[in-house]
């Protein structure tokens, strides 16, 4: 992922967000995307290479790793970040559509045309609904991924040793996860940050409805 490209893409969201939306965007950039790029990706870089089982049986280590890590934390976080930021892009596209419609009217009717959207970025009408639905969608995506993480990795933590008895393992073997404490700390950090983002989305949605 390219930090600069991502920042340029979501930067205009600030222009059309409330104060809560700006705080949410800052959290996504600093505490989720930046932490992922700087630290988390390196922490999980050795998860398969240093996953060891106390057996020489060919294929046993690979099968056990696939069982305990069906989906990588890193890939899940990337998918989560992509899905959670897409609704913000829809808001930008909606504003761009309003501006383009105003421009077409100005070209057709001249300078003294009757403006449909005096302020295209103002959250009224369809844009209000787009913005509200984007908040609900973002909160829903984060909650779904929290549930997925909980189902795959109980309590969001990783044990030091896991026991595996899947074929072709000859018997019950012990497998050792690389740096489980460090991985657990980063996982809990990302989970807490996600929960804060969900709360901010719900507060902003409540604020929009109350203001209207």
Q: What are the defining features of this structure?
A:
6 helices; mainly alpha; 3-stranded antiparallel β-sheet; 212 residues; de novo design (two linked rop proteins)
Word description of this protein:
The protein has 212 residues and is mainly α. The chain has a single domain (17-51, 68-105, 123-160, 173-211), classed as Gap junction channel protein cysteine-rich domain (de novo design (two linked rop proteins), Up-down Bundle), CATH 1.20.1440.80. The chain is built from 6 helices and 3 strands. A 3-stranded antiparallel beta sheet has the order 1-3-2, covered by helices on one side. A hairpin with an 8-residue loop joins strand 2 and strand 3. The longest helix has 37 residues, at 73-109. 20% of the residues are buried. The model has no long low-confidence stretch (mean pLDDT 80). It comes from Setophaga kirtlandii (Kirtland's warbler). It holds the Pfam family Connexin.
SSE layout and pairings?
Layout: H1 3-10, H2 19-43, E1 52-53, H3 60-68, H4 73-109, H5 126-152, E2 161-164, E3 173-176, H6 180-211
Antiparallel strand pairs: 1-3, 2-3
Would you summarize the structure shown here?
With 212 residues, the protein is mainly alpha-helical. It has 6 helices and 3 strands, in the order H-H-E-H-H-H-E-E-H.
């Amino acid at each position: 992922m390219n930090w600069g490209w991502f920042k340029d893409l979501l930067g205009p969201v600030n222009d059309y967000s409330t104060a809560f939306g700006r705080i949410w965007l800052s959290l996504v950039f600093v505490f989720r995307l930046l932490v992922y790029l700087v630290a988390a990706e390196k922490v999980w870089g050795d998860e398969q290479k240093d996953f060891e089982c106390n057996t020489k049986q060919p294929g046993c280590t690979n099968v056990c790793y696939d069982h305990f890590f069906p989906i990588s934390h890193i890939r899940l976080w990337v998918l989560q970040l992509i899905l959670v930021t897409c609704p913000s892009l829809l808001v930008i596209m909606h504003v761009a559509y309003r501006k383009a419609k105003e421009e077409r009217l100005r070209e057709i009717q001249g300078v003294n045309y009757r403006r449909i959207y005096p302020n295209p970025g103002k959250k009224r009408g369809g844009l209000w609904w787009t913005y509200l639905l984007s908040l609900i969608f973002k909160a829903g995506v984060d909650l779904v991924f929290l549930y997925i993480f909980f189902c795959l990795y109980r309590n969001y933590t990783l044990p030091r040793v896991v026991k595996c008895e899947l074929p072709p393992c000859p018997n019950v073997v012990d497998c050792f996860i690389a740096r489980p404490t460090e991985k657990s700390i980063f996982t809990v950090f990302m989970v807490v940050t996600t929960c804060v983002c969900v709360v901010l989305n719900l507060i902003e949605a409540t604020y929009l409805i109350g203001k209207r």
